[in-house]
Amino acid sequence: MAADRWARAQLFFEAKDFAAAARILRGLVDEDPQPVAPRLLLARAYYHSAQLGRAEAELRAVLDRDPVEAYARLMLGRTLERQGRADDGAGQLRIAAALGADGA
Q1: Cβ of 96: how many Cβ atoms within 10 Å?
Q2: In this structure, which of 13, 60, 76, 96 has its CB flanked by the most CB atoms within 10 Å?
Q3: What pTM was computed for the model?
């Protein structure tokens, strides 16, 4: 059941087992790509496990569906910075700040 897997993925994420969380979340997102929350948590799991290319792809997919998702903009900015793409990241962080994201 998807709800059980979602809860399990959140537990793994909270326990900082980002790889396990990502495996569960990947399945959930593949089954139903529309909800933003699982995809955003998947992006965060990828980010925290240094899978930055995958994190970027998931964040861009979130923003394709919801261009004003402030937290996704913030995470994309940080992801790009961490990849050594500071100029690209700064642009996303400015947008995130304009959208009211905390920490931007």
Answers
A1: 23
A2: 76
A3: 0.92
Cα(5)–Cα(90) distance, integer angstroms:
35
At 103, phi and psi to the nearest 5? 85, 5
DSSP-assigned letters across all residues of the chain = -HHHHHHHHHHHHHTT-HHHHHHHHHHHHHH----HHHHHHHHHHHHHTT-HHHHHHHHHHHHHH-TT-HHHHHHHHHHHHHTT-HHHHHHHHHHHHHTT-TT-
Which pLDDT tens digit goes with each residue over 11-50? Answer: 999 999 999 999 999 999 999 999 999 999 999 999 999 9
- Residues 76, 60: Cα–Cα separation, whole Å: 8
What CA–CA distance (Å, rounded) separates 48 from 94?
A: 22
